[in-house]
Write a structure and sequence with these properties.
It is a single chain. This protein has 418 residues and is an alpha/beta fold. It is built from 13 helices and 19 strands. The protein is globular, with a radius of gyration of 24 Å. The strands form 5 sheets. The chain has an 8-stranded mixed sheet with strand order 12-11-8-13-16-17-18-19, with helices on both faces. The chain has 2 domains: 3-188, 3-Layer(aba) Sandwich (Rossmann fold), CATH 3.40.50.1950; 201-291 and 312-417, CoaB-like (Rossmann fold, 3-Layer(aba) Sandwich), CATH 3.40.50. Helix 1 crosses helix 8 (178-188), helix 3 (82-88) packs across helix 5 and helix 9 packs across helix 13. The relative contact order is 0.09. The protein binds cytidine-5'-monophosphate. The site of cytidine-5'-monophosphate has 14 residues, from helix 11 and strand 16.
Length: 418
């Protein structure tokens, strides 16, 4: 049971915060809600008060009838300062939905209402679950604010992609679903102490390589790096020491993780070979381009007058994963990823597991537009020599947790066998 302070800021998604309260209280947590004035234009305090069983505050100068106590706790004898007491007594402060305005205030340390003042006074874990229009979400100011918050250790629950509040709008910005937010709350309140991946050195490759045709053009792919970055973040949560080799990834970075940027397959290979001997687990999530131009031009190739076609001579890139797996020492675990089209995806994955001598391969079917490449969600099957684990469509963070769980299982079995 945890004491959860829920901050609700303005946005149509405020109605989903009611469901979050319902789930959290059902799971045995004591919840207190505070609202920004704007959020009350969407959902009134009475709804949160009814579901939490406690007064809901909006203003720093409002008296808290429960004196900062959470449901189930006895209030103190004195009348404390509400924003300090509520956050002081909380095990976790979750802001859901976090509007674009509230995120900006948090990033800049403003304290102009109860919610933002409480955030500044928070000393425990702070989680934000943003929800907004997709253009606001993608705006450079929002990106920068999130980066600032992440660097300060704030946990960001990425919004989903789908239909948005305004009619006909579609894109990233939908508040994460309440069960996902509750899972993040519960993960954040894990008591300090040993973590499952403490001491483990993990190498993750992420993104997609670019193989130059000339000085400005390249052969590349649509990989965003989200799966690799999610693996790195979750592994860091679990205590691992993580290095990411990022091939052309434009996503926000986790301050707990070391990043090395590369562009081509050859650069990726060289970085992998440098780090491999110091690594316990390699997760090869990068989409390495298979074919590259034999002799890229140093300058921009020019179209000739009357030219109607062009031939490119392509050679194969080195198979980095096979090379690593071929030299791995006892105690090292090598995991590949297979992005395949259609029904035969799993068969191809099984074949690659054997051919590339891997410990596990994570197979996903990229013929589906809602998962895999450049999507926030994924649905995979983790194939090892002795079993196959299906992970239903979930946020890439949850898929990452499942993959790391399987890696831990494999390693524990190895130790037991040795
Ligand atoms: O053979 P395929 O490209 O489908 O294998 C996918 C797996 O192999 C991925 O883990 C990818 O990172 C890795 N790979 C590699 N070097 C290549 C091609 C793929 O390491 N040249």
């Amino acid at each position: 049971m945890a004491r959860v302070l829920l901050g609700v800021s303005g946005g149509i998604a405020a109605y989903k915060a009611l469901e979050l309260v319902r789930l959290a209280t059902k799971a045995g947590h004591a919840v207190r809600a505070i609202q920004t004035p704007t959020s009350q234009r969407f959902v009134g305090a009475a709804s949160f008060a009814a579901l939490t069983g406690a007064p809901v505050l909006t203003d720093e100068f409002e008296r808290d009838a429960a004196r900062g106590a959470y449901p189930g706790d006895a209030p103190p004898e004195h009348d404390p300062i509400s924003h300090l007491e509520l956050v002081h007594n909380a095990d976790v402060f979750v802001i859901a939905p976090a509007s674009v305005n509230t995120l900006a205030k948090l990033a800049h340390g403003l304290a102009d209402n109860l919610l933002t003042s409480a955030a500044l006074a928070a000393t425990g874990p702070v989680i934000v679950a943003p929800a907004m229009n997709n253009h606001m979400w993608e705006h450079a100011a929002t990106r920068a604010n999130l980066q600032t918050l992440r660097q300060r250790g704030v946990i960001v629950i990425e919004p989903g992609t789908g239909e948005l509040a305004s009619k006909g709008e579609y894109g990233a910005g939908r508040l994460a679903e309440p069960p996902e937010i509750l899972a993040a709350i519960e993960a954040a309140i894990v008591p300090p102490g040993p973590k499952p991946l403490d001491g483990l050195k993990l190498l993750v490759t992420a993104g997609g390589t670019r193989e130059p045709i000339d000085s400005v053009r390249y052969i590349g792919n649509r990989s965003s790096g989200r799966m690799g970055f999610a693996l790195a973040e979750v592994a860091a949560d679990l205590g691992a020491e993580v290095t990411v080799i990022a091939a052309n990834v434009g996503l926000d970075r986790d301050p707990r993780v070391s990043y090395l940027d590369v562009s081509t397959a050859e650069e990726l290979r060289s970085a992998c070979l440098t780090h491999f001997s110091l690594t316990d687990v390699v997760l090869m999530a990068a989409a390495v381009v298979d074919f590259r131009p034999g002799a890229p031009a140093d300058t921009k190739l020019k179209k000739q007058t009357g030219q109607d076609s062009m031939r490119l001579e392509l050679g194969l890139t080195p198979d980095i994963l096979s090379e690593l797996a071929g030299t791995k020492k006892p105690g090292q675990t090598v995991v590949g990823f297979a992005a395949e089209h259609g029904d035969k995806a799993l068969d191809y994955g099984r074949e690659k597991l054997k051919r590339k001598k891997l410990d596990a391969i994570v197979v996903n079917d990229i013929s589906r537009p809602d998962i895999g490449f450049d999507a926030t969600h994924n649905e995979v099957t983790i194939v090892t020599a002795d079993r196959e684990t299906s992970v239903p469509r979930s946020a890439k963070q949850d898929v990452a947790t499942a993959i790391l769980g399987e890696v831990s299982r494999l390693r524990a079995e190895d130790v037991a066998r040795a």
